[in-house]
Amino acid sequence: MAIARTVDRRLFFVLDRTYLQLAQAADRALAEGSGLGRAQAAVLVYLGYHDGCTLTELSEGTGRRNAAITGLVDRMEAAELITRKQSYGDRRQRTVHLTDKGWSMREEVMADFRDFNTRLTRGLNETETAAVMKFLSQSVDNVRRPAAKSRRK
């Protein structure tokens, strides 16, 4: 007879529960700081490194679906955080750029994330933090690869 556990210890479920708790904590930290949500904060951070990218690049870079990015960009454009411009190389494409207000808000978001990351890594040294980063990166790569055929019948 199997022993009943109140919490499943399979790695996926631990990661899922951890993600939910961290996402809620990040939402609170952003609300208390810049006042933005995680999705808008992610766009500002990404554009700080890739200003002038396409919507598709923004979608891929932030890990959000194209449909979600379109609405998010609409709202952020209305808030004057970003602007869309016609692409120089392809008139059918538009690129996304931070406005002065967007750059300023990005600085607030970056400060929020610096503080949050400091709290998140408290008690971990550089080697341990690097190991966590490597594991998270590798785990995504692992699940993107086709799974080996199962022998279950």
UniProtKB/TrEMBL annotation:
Occurrences of domain HTH marR-type (ranges): 8-141
Name of the protein this chain belongs to: MarR family transcriptional regulator
Keywords, in A-Z order: DNA-binding, Transcription, Transcription regulation
Keyword Oxidoreductase: no
Highest taxon listed in the record's lineage: Bacteria
Signal peptide, first to last residue: none
PROSITE patterns documented for this protein: HTH_MARR_1, HTH_MARR_2
GO process annotations (BP): response to stress
SUPFAM superfamilies with a match to the protein in the record: Winged helix' DNA-binding domain
Single GO MF descriptor: DNA-binding transcription factor activity
PANTHER family membership: HTH-TYPE TRANSCRIPTIONAL REPRESSOR YETL (PTHR33164:SF43), TRANSCRIPTIONAL REGULATOR, MARR FAMILY (PTHR33164)
Keyword 4Fe-4S: no
InterPro entries: HTH_MarR-typ (IPR000835), MarR/SlyA-like (IPR039422), Tscrpt_reg_MarR-type_CS (IPR023187), WH-like_DNA-bd_sf (IPR036388), WH_DNA-bd_sf (IPR036390)
